[in-house]
Amino acid sequence: MQRLSVALAVLFLLFGCSSSAVSRELGAQCNDNSDCDDRCVSGADYPDGLCTVSCGSDRECPGGARCIDKEGGICLFSCTDTADCEFLGQGWKCKSKDLRSDDQMEVMVCFGE
To answer: Which stretch of 1-5, 99-103, 105-109 has the lowest confidence by average pLDDT?
Structure first.
């Protein structure tokens, strides 16, 4: 837990002016669900683990995030290019993923390499 607090403090100092806010709700690194407000997703798609929120549509996501059709529906930060995802750390890219509420529509979100 202390490692997480230090990492969040460093991210805040480096990216405090970023439009995307890392929090236990969305964006913080995690090892398990207890590190997050809702849930932790991990594996190659989520480098170092990622706190996120379960969702059925964008309305259930924090500002600046989209609800994608992965893991039963999760919120991920929206982006226009990979530079928008650098605040999450190494291994994150801006990729096209299916929107949860409309499988015909794809949106750009920060996702693992």
So the answer is: 1-5
Neighbours of 11 (CB within 10 A): 19
Confirm if 79 and 97 have CB atoms less than 8 A apart.
no
Structure tokens at 58: 């964008």
3-state secondary structure at position 52:
strand
CA gap 1, 58 in Å, rounded: 29
Chain CA centroid to CA 21, Å: 10
Query: For 14-31, how does the pLDDT look when each residue is reduced to its tens digit (9 = 90+)?
Result: 343 344 689 999 999 999
Cα-to-chain-centroid distance, residue 3 = 19
The count of residues in the chain is 113
DSSP strands (E only) in the chain: 39-41, 50-52, 65-68, 74-77, 92-99, 102-112
